[in-house]
Design a protein that fits this description.
Largest sheet: 7 strands, mixed
Shape: globular
Structural class: mainly beta
Number of strands: 12
Length: 166
C-alpha cells in the first residue's frame, strides 16, 4: 500500500490513527512496521525520561518510547490496554506506546492543514499538520522530526537505550 496515491487530481495519504490521553494523533502508514499488543519492556539504567526500556522484536532489541511523555502530555508507563506502534525512524526501529490504535484511513492530502503558529512556548516541529473533521481534530505527527536526522537519536547516540538498537 502506497502512502500517497493519486485519486483524480488530488493525492491521498494513508494514515494510522491512534489515541493518547483522549487526543487523536496519526502518522503515515509507511513509517509504521507493525502494531503490537502491550508487553512489558526491560528498563535500561540512565535512559531518557521518555525511554521506557527495550524489548525483543523477533531477535532484535528495540527501544520503547513513552509517546505521551515525549510530546509533553505526562508520563504513560503503559499497561495491558496500550498498544506499541513499531516504526522505522531514520533507519532505527523504535516502539512507541500509545493508548490505543483507532483506525487505518486514507485521507485527501488537502485535509491536512498547517499547525497554527503560536508566539510563546509552543513547539510545532513534531507535527506535520492537523486534520480537521466534523467532530475531531487529529494531529498528524512526524516521528522523524522527534529525533535528530543525523543518525543520532535526539543526541542520545551514547545512551544505552538507543545503542542497543543500532
Amino acid at each position: 500500500m502506497n502512502s500517497t496515491t493519486e485519486t483524480g487530481s488530488t493525492a491521498a495519504v494513508d494514515i494510522i490513527a491512534f489515541r493518547l490521553r483522549d487526543q487523536a494523533f496519526c502518522v503515515r502508514t509507511t513509517s509504521v512496521r507493525e502494531i503490537r499488543g502491550w508487553s512489558a519492556c526491560t528498563p535500561i539504567p540512565h535512559a531518557p525520561t521518555d525511554g521506557l526500556g527495550v524489548m525483543n522484536l523477533r531477535g532484535s532489541v528495540i527501544p520503547i518510547i513513552d509517546l505521551a511523555g515525549r510530546l509533553g502530555m505526562g508520563a504513560n508507563p503503559g499497561n495491558e490496554r496500550c498498544a506499541i506502534v513499531v516504526a522505522d525512524v531514520d533507519s532505527t526501529m523504535i516502539g512507541f506506546v500509545v493508548d490505543r490504535v483507532s483506525d487505518i484511513l486514507t485521507i485527501d492530502e488537502k485535509q491536512i492543514q498547517p499547525v497554527p503558529k503560536i508566539a510563546v512556548g509552543f513547539d510545532t516541529k513534531f507535527a506535520r499538520g492537523v486534520i480537521a473533521q466534523a467532530e475531531t481534530m487529529t494531529c498528524f505527527l512526524d516521528f522523524s522530526a522527534m529525533f535528530a536526522g543525523d543518525g543520532s537519536i535526539d543526541g542520545f547516540e551514547d545512551d544505552p537505550l538507543f545503542a542497543a538498537s543500532h
